[in-house]
Structure formats: C-alpha cells, structure tokens
Amino acid sequence: MTAPPYPVSAPIPGVRRAWWLREALAAETSPLPAPPVAGEVSVDVAIVGGGYTGMWTAWFLTEMAPGMRIAILEADICGGGPSGRNGGFLHGWWEQLPYLVKRFGPEAGLQLAQAADEVVEGVGAWCDEQGVDAWHTPSGYLRVNAFPATPYDWQGLPDELAHLGAPGQLRHVEPADVQRFCASPAFHEGLLMPSAATIQPARLARGLRRVLLERGVQVHEATEVEHLDTAGKPLYLTTKGGRVAADQVVLAANAWAGGWPGFRTRVLAWGSYMVITEPIPGRLSEIGWTGGAALADSRFTISYFRTTRDGRIAFGAGVGAAGFDGRIGPVFTSDRGAIARVVANFRHLLPMLGDVRFEDAWGGPIDITADRFPEIGSRHSGRVHYAHGFAGNGVGPARLAGRTLAAMVAGIQDPLAANALIGQRQRFLPPEPFRYIGARAIREALIRQDDALDAGREPGALVSMVAGLPGLLGYRFKH
Ligand SMILES: Cc1cc2nc3c(=O)[nH]c(=O)nc-3n(C[C@H](O)[C@H](O)[C@H](O)COP(=O)(O)OP(=O)(O)OC[C@H]3O[C@@H](n4cnc5c(N)ncnc54)[C@H](O)[C@@H]3O)c2cc1C
Predict the structure, then answer these.
(1) Ligand 1 pocket member 323 (CB < 6 A)
(2) pLDDT tens per residue, the chain (479 residues)?
(3) How much distance in Å is there from the Cα of 352 to the middle of ligand 1?
(4) CA–CA separation, 181 vs 191, rounded Å?
(5) Residue 239 Cα: closest atom of ligand 1
(6) Ligand 1: does its nearest atom lie under 6 Å from the Cβ of 89?
(7) CB environment 247-275: b (16+ within 10 A), e (fewer)
(8) Distance (Å, rounded) from C-alpha 278 to C-alpha 234?
(9) Number of H helices, E strands in the chain
(10) Nearest 5°: phi and psi at 330?
(11) Which end of the chain has fewer CB atoms < 10 Å from its terminal CB, N or C?
C-alpha cells in the first residue's frame, strides 16, 4: 500500500463498514433474514450479486414475470459492495449524449440517454411507493471548474445537447451563480444537470432488499458463488454451503466480473475513495450550501461531494489504484494513500472548511470498460445474462441495466430498456501484466496532470504524453 505523502487527519479506511451502510443498518427495524444457501436449491433464475444491478433485475422480474422463482446470491450482505458505499449521485448519461449519438446514431443514442434519465424520477417514485426512505433529493448536479488558469472545455455542451434533441438537460452556470450553490474561492464556471438527484446509497440498497424479500424473492447472503456449470440443463451454481440449479443466471457482479472467465479482458477495476465529515450544518449555511446540490470538479480523477441530511459533507475522488487481473483485494478498501489524496482535494476545493474533522473513510472498486459504458449481453445460448462496466456512474444506470436484464430473462421487449447496448461487446483491454503496469503509470500521470492544473501550471510534456496514451490507443478514458 502506498504511504500517505503527508499526515492525514482522517480515519483509516477498510476497518469497518462505510458510514452510509452503518447508518442504513442502524435504521432497520427487524430486518427479514437472508440465510446462506444450504443444500440443494432450485429456481427459475439465479442472480449473482446483491447490489443495485442484481436487485433491480429481481424487482423488474417480479413485475414482468410474476410467479418466477428468483434467488439472489450475495457473497457479503446486500449493499455490502459499492451499492452501499458510493457517493449517492443519481443521474443518467446527459454528459455522454454526444458520444452515444456518435456510437449508436441520433435516435438510438437519444433513446439511451432518455432511458438513463428515467432512473432519477423512477428511483424517487419507487421509494415513495415502497416506503423506502433513501433521502431522495432532486438537487441537480453541478460540475465546477476549479482549475485557476484553465477554462473548462464543456462550454459547447448545452448547445450540442439542444441540437441532439435534449435542450436544457445541461446548462452553463456563470461563476457568480456557481457561488450560490456553494460559495468557495476555488470554484469558477459550472455545468449544471438539473434533472439529477442524490440518495443515501445504502438506504436504497437495503430498501431494495426488504421489498424483494417481502415479494418472495429468495435472498441468500454470505453466499459466494464459486463455480458456474453451464455444461447441461439446468445451470448449476456452486457455493460453500450447497448448490443452486437454475434455468437462467444473471451475473450482476460489477468489478468482480473482471475475475470471471470471459470478462477478464474487458473489465478493469479502479479504486474510488470517500471521506465523511462530522455534522457541520451551521458551516454549510454560512457558505450557502443548503440546497443539497451534488458537486464535482473538473479533474480527470474527479472529486465528487454532496451533503447529508444531518449536515455532513460526503466527499470522494477517483484516486485509487488499478487492480491486477480482476482481483478485488485490499487495494480497493484500505489504501491510505488514496484517502490522503481525497483529503488534499477536499482542502483544495473547500479551503474555508480546513478545520473540519473527518469521521469516516472508505473505498470500493469501480468497473471500467474500454469506452466507460456498461456491456449488457447473454452467453451460453442465451441462458446466462450479464451487465457490468458502470465506470463509477452506476447508481442510476444500474436500475436501467436491471430493467434491461429482466426483460432479457423474461423474453419481452421493453421500450425503456437500454436496447442499443444489448449484445454490444466492449473492446479488449491490454493483457496482464501490461494492463496493470500501464494503468499504474497512466493513473500517476493523470494525477500529476490534475495537480499541475490545480496549481495553475501547465503539466510537463512527459506527463501529458502518458496521460494521453489511452486516447491514442482508442480507449475512451475521460468522463
Ligand atoms: C467510492 C465509490 C463512489 C461511487 N459513487 C458513485 C456515485 O456517486 N454515483 C454513481 O452513479 N456511481 C457511483 N459509484 C459506482 C456505483 O456504486 C456502482 O456503479 C454501482 O453500485 C454498481 O452496482 P452493482 O450492483 O452493479 O455492483 P455492486 O454494488 O458492486 O454489487 C455487486 C455485488 O456482487 C457481489 N459478488 C461479486 N462476486 C460474487 C460472487 N462470486 N458470488 C456472490 N456475490 C458476488 C459483491 O459482493 C457485490 O455486493 C461509486 C463507486 C464507489 C466505489
């Protein structure tokens, strides 16, 4: 593990569950049990992974195919992975619409962005209907340029979106107006996505778990799937405690997919880390950050920050390391060097809160593909379905992926599914160990490039060259 470059006044990450999940678990009254698989179990569909993707798949299946016998198999507890410890930024793909149109054409690209946008209101309405208090706050999402000497390059996006059929989904915000969302001397101009919201991520995950159990879905926690046998019918999933027979299987394993045969070459795990402050509602009032706006900066290793119901700031950044060969180990949960960088970014972006204390720190893996979009598809004669590759933006899109997977399992057409993505394989990433070595070098260059721009300097030629390598190789590495 890399040593912090300077003393850090933040808790050590990885020693306990993330603050979000502890808060959500403490709020649960008499949760229904979800015991591990013991012996032989037989279902129509088995879902590997109890995060948002797996649980939304189960939810939509209960709607699309009532009576289907569904089991969720989760190695940890539902929401124990990134679904219970992310930033809670809930939005779709408006920033990516130009890319989607380039890849899929104007109609299909716009359909995808619209389907991805449904998730924001869709999650809010679902929470209301199901009595899940996930702190859904329709706050908007504001990206601010915090580079002192570099104007941001999103200037043309609002007009481009209007031209592509999505007027008003992104808006330019003048520096003075940015200060009204949250007053910081580090912020310049901004780009607002008005439709976005925030949630308490673990409350959404745990709410899904409760509703699914009440609907009769079998949920098995502490159940790691060790092997999937696709040789005959039914399919068999082996766990420590037993075996599950299923006609269809859904793999909703997120970054863990990189360890599965067949996906290893197309998914790279990358660490994202967060800290949360003590409650400071008075200080938030002083800087006018009372509307709950979700904020992010213009760094490649993006910093994202939002407030909580009890007046804390949850602040994260994509500054963790890349994983090796699909293994999800302590580098994604216990990297103190990454937390030091998160804290440094916090102090840089919110200098007026330099004395605020941090009460928790944690991290998790995000799953990156060649173009930073998920791949959704089927294999083994259409009996095994999968979705992964959210690239750090899965809170909303995982609902879309779950809806799409459910329609695939049920064999129905759903106009609100991510239809253009179905069956589109991602490009191969370089093989190991070149991927790991390359990703490390590129990550370091990207951080140095961001640091230089933060300091108002031009990055050096070597740093720029290494940081630009993924683009030269045809990978879409930028947000
Ligand atoms: C620190 C951090 C901050 C983030 N912030 C945001 C944000 O603000 N907005 C946003 O849109 N996205 C964010 N993301 C990304 C987002 O959290 C994910 O894209 C999303 O949660 C993906 O959901 P999922 O269900 O696909 O994956 P997960 O939540 O990772 O669920 C996959 C589950 O599969 C289980 N599993 C894996 N292998 C097996 C196996 N063999 N057997 C049984 N179970 C298995 C794992 O235990 C895990 O619980 C963030 C991610 C991190 C790490």
Answers:
(1) no
(2) 444 443 457 899 999 999 999 999 999 999 999 999 999 999 999 999 999 999 999 999 999 999 999 999 999 999 999 999 999 999 999 999 999 999 999 999 999 999 999 999 999 999 999 999 999 999 999 999 999 888 888 889 999 999 999 999 999 999 999 999 999 999 999 999 999 999 999 999 999 999 999 999 999 999 999 999 999 999 999 999 999 999 999 999 999 999 998 898 899 999 999 999 999 999 999 999 999 999 999 988 899 999 999 999 999 999 999 999 989 999 999 999 999 999 999 999 999 999 999 999 999 999 999 999 999 999 999 999 999 999 999 999 999 999 999 999 999 999 999 999 999 989 888 889 999 998 889 888 988 999 999 888 999 999 888 888 888 888 886 65
(3) 33
(4) 12
(5) 42
(6) yes
(7) bbbbbbbbbbbbbbeebbbbbbbbbbbbb
(8) 51
(9) 13, 18
(10) -60, -20
(11) N
Q: Using CB atoms within 10 A of its CB, is residue 219 exposed (0-12), middle (13-18) or buried (19+)?
A: buried
Q: To test ligand 1's pocket by mutation, which of 93, 395, 399, 404 has the most ligand atoms within 8 angstroms of CB?
A: 395
118 Cα: distance to centroid of ligand 1 (angstroms): 20
Q: Does ligand 1 have an atom closer than 6 angstroms to the CB of 212?
A: no
**Ligand 1 centre and the CA of 69: distance in Å?**
24
